[in-house]
Amino acid sequence: MTTLNYRWQRLLLVFITIAVLMASFYFEYVKNLEPCPLCMMQRLCVMLLLMFGMMSLFCGISKCGRVTSILQMMIALTGVFFAARQLWLQSLPADQTPACLPGLDVLINYFPWQEVFRALFWGSGECAEITGYWLGLSMPGWAALYFGFMFLANAYDYYRLRQKVETSQ
Questions:
Q1: What is the pLDDT of residues 126-155, one digit of tens each?
Q2: Which helix (H) or strand (E) segment is 6 a member of?
Q3: CATH classification for the domain delimited by 3-95+136-168, as one of 1.10.1410.10, 1.20.1550.10, 3.40.50.150, 3.30.1330.90
Q4: CA distances from residue 97 to 4, 20, 88, 124, 164 in whole angstroms, order as listed
């Protein structure tokens, strides 16, 4: 793996991540879809992937590049968890979905932190709403595909960087 190939691949991943982040802002501010707690956690994972992706552009094919790949794999797996949790909530029958909670701003202002963290990590009734489909998948389905792709791309980069270090010694 050459440094130029590595940087182009990382730049492509950064652009894909920016597109996903912009799509989430588009749905929130243009389409007026209020993000649920699990959507907010998925967005946080996308922002962290963007941050470490930009950092990996400056690291190059060094130990720092391997570390950022590992961190991105962990963040991508976390994003897969949140997307899978939301997909699971959406698959529940209506009588088994958890109760809806107030918005995140109300939760933060009036509820104990334990309730806020529980809503953020496990979701609530509004996470079970399906706001729409695109090509047969709901938004958390697309998010799960994105996070899975990011995990595989970073695992591939980590393997190639590790292989590069082993052959250079």
A1: 666 677 767 878 888 899 999 999 999 999
A2: helix 3-29
A3: 1.20.1550.10
A4: 49, 28, 10, 8, 49
